[in-house]
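Table S4 entry, Kinesin-like protein.
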Amino acid sequence: MGHGEETGIIPRFCEELFSRVELLKSKEMVKINVEISFFEIYNEKIHDLLASVKEKSAKKPSLKVREHPVLGPYVEGLSTYVVNSFEDVEGWITLGNKNRATACTGMNDKSSRSHSVFTIVLTQSKTERIEGTDHEHCTNSKINLVDLAGSERQSQAQTTGERLREGANINKSLMALGKVISLLSEQSVTNKKRKIFIPYRDSVLTWLLKESLGGNSKTAMIATISPANHHVEETLSTLRYPFIIDFLYCHIFK
């Protein structure tokens, strides 16, 4: 999620996206609209990272998760913004990162205390003339770029009070994510016709990522690990997630 001189994966992805959008516009008669939103999951509560807060000490309002019968889970009342360039996106990412919950722990002087989800909705519309009549075709794509907070042990992170509670909620949601991924992979490997109950609602994170993990989608994960010997257990635990995701089977259709 880094920016500036330490550009992270999400800004790099957005920069590449807009370069391809401009290329597509120049080659084909197509209109492209890009909208973004940015929120965090902090202690199982959702906060809009792009919402304006007048006072820095003011408490962030919590948003609720709803489920659409066709589109799946969504965050009610989440602000969305139209962006026309990578510079627009970069500005919103900078604002969102400033509003994100971070704190100093024994393992990291600026530890993320929440998971964040940066969503891009891309709409392509193209007009074709068929037998003298114009027909407009629209294609919608949704991309969820998720920055997961790292799992931590209390003995190493040296957390107490509120930091300890934050760490417990982070670990709980990561365990729920691991369980959902394992069951989806098991369903893919054993028998695609046999339905297994997937406990998406065990955490806010897995509920909101329901369509990204088991719906009409493709899922990819990048694991960030430490080379230090004393972090070997955390490293092995982290590597388990992308290994299992590799077995996920998703049926993609338009």
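The mean pLDDT is 84.
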